[in-house]
Amino acid sequence: MDNSNTTHLKREVLVRLIRAFLNQEMKDLYKLPFEMRPKNAEVPYRCCIYKERAILRQRAIAGLGFGVENDDEITSLNEYVQKAMHRDKPDEEILTVVETACKGCVPSRVYVTELCQGCVARPCVSTCKFGAIQIKDGKSVIDGEKCKNCGMCMSVCPYSAIVRLKVPCEDACPVGAIAKNEKGHAEIDFDKCISCGACVGACPFAAVHEKSQVIDILKQIKSGKKVVAMVAPAVVGQLPVSVNKIAQALVDCGFSEVFEVAQGADITARTEAEDYRERMEKGDEFMTTSCCAAYNELVDKHIPELKPFRSETRTPMHYTAELVKKKYPDAVTVFIGPCVAKRKEAQKDEYTDFVMNFEEMGALFVAFNIEVANCKDYEFANEASKEGRFFAVTGGVAESVKVALKDFPEFYPTCVNGLNPKSVRDLKNWAKKGQCPEGNLVEIMACEGGCVAGSACLNNKRITTKKITEYANSSKCINDLPEGESEKVSK
Amino acid sequence: MEEAGKILVELCFGTTCFVMGASKLQEIESIIPPQYRKRVEVKAHTCLDLCKNATYMKAPFVKVDGEIISEATVEKVLKAIESKVNG
Ligand code: FES
Predict the structure, then answer these.
(1) Which member of A217, A377, A460, B43 has the greatest number of CB atoms within 10 A?
(2) Domain chopping of chain A, boundaries
(3) Nearest Cα to A188, choosing from A205, A207, A204?
């Protein structure tokens, strides 16, 4: 969802939080809603200044890493600050709905608009199997009690006068994990949620927040520990500068070293190619990739029958973090990426300590007053391949497996480009039948377009895809790079 | 050098502006209505030095013939161009 106003608000809250930390002004954080909406200020978005301040307070709570669901509205922002400053690890659930920001959209339903011409043919009436449409005062009217929301009337109306009113978050969720509660506000069912972040991007009120770990990361840096940044391949093009400058800007913020996760992607590609070869040689029908954290949660929570077909290969984040910890056992590892689901994956990963998204990275640069274009070009200690660097774009993972396989006569790749109710149904079918008619190597990306479409990206996916392609094309082929250090990690 | 008689649109793609939303302005050149296009010159800059200290929250910034637009959006910039063209 491309919404400048909500993006601006979220990021401003983050910048203020980080600045308060850096300037040792966390004790003044209670002022944040009042500073952003001072007395007599304009009220750009909501009914009154008090509502806007209440929303900003809750956005700050999420920025401090807490859920808003349990906020009693009495606990002051400063008390949240105290808890954030003293906690050892971030909250387990990674998303929260800022209830005050949630509009409580009208329930999803099929609705006849005033464009209804009251035509003589009345195909809507005759098509409805449930007898839910009647003519009143010469126009079609839907009986909400009888309507099953099937949408048949919409498809037959010659005037396109019937529409479906959507609740954007519910509509975006591929697994039905977010819905309005009895109070009319969106609520996430964490037993179903696969952390894909679709609701985060879809809500036009920016009511769904990631619980930020940025304070935890800043605490680690401040304590003098060696904190290593691991930048996802999608970082390329997030700002209109080279990836080397972005990496240097991270060092200028206090990270001691920066690794490209593309290096771990090389290990994923080689391992996945081996896994695929073995499976095909023993007669398996198909194998899916395993690098998308939201897809992995989908399989674990909703399609366990797909588990035997999913590669056992670990993700690029995991391998990269393992490389870092092998090199620096005391280091703190921070994955920096566009993806909500990586926060969940990191909680289970033995080598990844924290996750920061690209929005938070951008806010960090702003808070530090860093002009990234003026930074030096950072030199990565290790080289990553063309294929590893292209992982963030749909088709990139399958391509990397193809290249790493070198030669495999019956290689038929296909991509599930985005998780939605239809692709989830397809996956269930393939698992049930034990066959995939589309190919024998199935790459799965929860976000349409790949990681470049993750909910926390700073730049649009068309531009980042172009930048990533250029960067990848200037890199060596995976087969021309020595496996080197990657051999030392546990495949 | 800006061409004589043209309206100069200066987009800031410095870090603060970009993070605060200037990424949405990248394609503005292609959205300028055809009747204005010949009268407009678009330039991209890194930090225009308008974002320091507390003013960062007003980013992204765009200048249209020297006039500063804060919290710039595509709509605001197009409107400013239109009002310049129409004097
Ligand atoms: S980044 Fe735009 S004015 Fe500084």
Answers:
(1) A217
(2) 4-103+175-212, 109-165, 223-487
(3) A207
Question: What Rg, from alpha-carbon coordinates, does chain A have?
Answer: 24
CATH architecture of B7-85: 3-Layer(aba) Sandwich (3.40)
pLDDT, one tens digit per residue, over A345-378 is: 999 999 999 999 999 999 999 999 999 999 999 9
Q: Confirm if A289 and A397 have CB atoms less than 8 A apart.
A: yes
d(CA A153, CA A110): 9
CB A233 within 8 A of CB A201: no
Contacts of A12 in chain B (CB under 8 A): 20, 57
A103 contact partners, CB below 8 Å, separation of at least 6: A205, A207
> Chain A partners of B13 at a C-beta cutoff of 8 Å?
240
A128-169 confidence digits (pLDDT tens): 999 999 999 999 999 989 999 899 999 999 999 999 888 899
Q: Given the CA of residue B61, which atom of ligand 1 is nearest to it?
A: 2
Amino acid of residue A449? G
Read off the pLDDT of residues B50-82 as tens digits, 9 standing for 90 and up.
Answer: 998 667 789 999 999 999 999 999 999 999 999
Measured distance CA(A183)–CA(A190) in Å, rounded = 18
B26, B47, B71 ranked by CB distance to A8: nearest: B71
Sheet holding A332-337, edge to edge: A257-260, A227-231, A332-337, A354-357
Beta strands per DSSP E along chain B: 7-12, 40-45, 62-64, 67-69
CATH topology of domain A109-165: Alpha-Beta Plaits (3.30.70)
- Comparing CB atoms, the residue among B16, B18, B20 nearest residue A240 is B18
ipTM for the whole complex: 0.92
Interval B8-55: pLDDT, tens: 999 999 999 999 999 999 989 888 888 888 899 999 999 999 998 667
pLDDT bracket for residue A487 (50, 70, 90):
very low
Ligand 1 atom closest to residue B16's alpha carbon, by position in its atom list: 1
A223-487 folds as Fe-only Hydrogenase (Larger Subunit); Chain L, domain 3 (3.40.950)
Residues A255/A229, Cβ–Cβ less than 8 Å: yes
Size of interface A-B (CB pairs under 8 A): 56
Six token digits for residue A49: 């200044």
Q: What is the pTM of this model?
A: 0.92
